[in-house]
Amino acid sequence: MKIKLLVLFTLLCILISACGPGQTFGPTYTPTFTLTATSTITPLPTITPTSTSTLTPTPMPTNCAVEKIRFVYPVNGQTIDYVGSWLFMVRPISCSQNYLWSFYQNDTLIFQQESNNEFGVAPYSKDWNKFAAGYIKVSVQYKQNDGTLSNPTTISLFLQN
């Protein structure tokens, strides 16, 4: 009888050890999930934004006090090398956005460009090639915050070949 119990106990241990963790004796059932679509759409609430700014805008002057543009370089009447780079600078105006640079030769507008308070023309550039040796006039106006232009300040220069 002891042998029968030993054999029965051994078989039971083998059977139990053959099962994986969480398994029991008998068939294993695996649940199957099915998706079903619903056609019910719930509308979302409409959100209306409201503007409640806590920042106070800094007022910008619509017109500056009239400030005269002053050239830093070159100076009126200066002779500059025709073949070199031409550099221009005016003192910054506190309420200006940009400056309109205008270049004339023989009382004809050669070109105009908006820039900051410094401007340069490189030798052999497309703008440089529009000039010949001789007298030129350089006129500068500043653009105010409201978009209007100041009165121009003009200097005369001599391009020496």
Features:
161 residues, Immunoglobulin-like, 1 helix, mainly beta, 5-stranded mixed sheet, 3-stranded antiparallel sheet
List the helices and strands and how they pair.
Elements: H1 2-18, E1 71-73, E2 79-81, E3 86-90, E4 96-105, E5 108-115, E6 118-121, E7 134-144, E8 153-160
Parallel strand pairs: 2-8
Antiparallel strand pairs: 1-3, 3-6, 4-5, 4-7, 7-8
Describe the structure.
The chain is mostly beta strands. The chain has a domain at 71-160: Sandwich (Immunoglobulin-like), CATH 2.60.40. The protein has one helix at 2-18; strands spanning 71-73, 79-81, 86-90, 96-105, 108-115, 118-121, 134-144, 153-160. The termini are far apart.
Tally of alpha and pi helices: 1
The residue ranges in which pLDDT falls below 50 over 5 or more consecutive positions are: none
Report the average pLDDT across residues.
78
Helix content: 10-25%
Strand content: 25-35%
Strand order of the largest sheet: 2-8-7-4-5
CATH architecture of the domain at 71-160: Sandwich
Largest sheet, strands/sense/barrel: 5 strands, mixed
SSE string, helix = H, strand = E?
HEEEEEEEE
CATH class of the domain at 71-160, anyone? Answer: Mainly Beta
CA-atom Rg in angstroms: 44 Å
- Assign the structural class, choosing from mainly alpha, mainly beta, alpha/beta, alpha+beta, or little secondary structure: mainly beta
CATH fold-level label of the domain at 71-160 = Immunoglobulin-like
By DSSP, the count of extended strands is 8
The CATH homologous superfamily name of the domain at 71-160 equals Immunoglobulins
> What distance separates the N and C termini?
129 Å
Task: Please state the oligomeric state of the protein chains shown.
Answer: single chain
Overall body shape: elongated
Organism: bioreactor metagenome
Protein name: Proteinase inhibitor I42 chagasin domain-containing protein
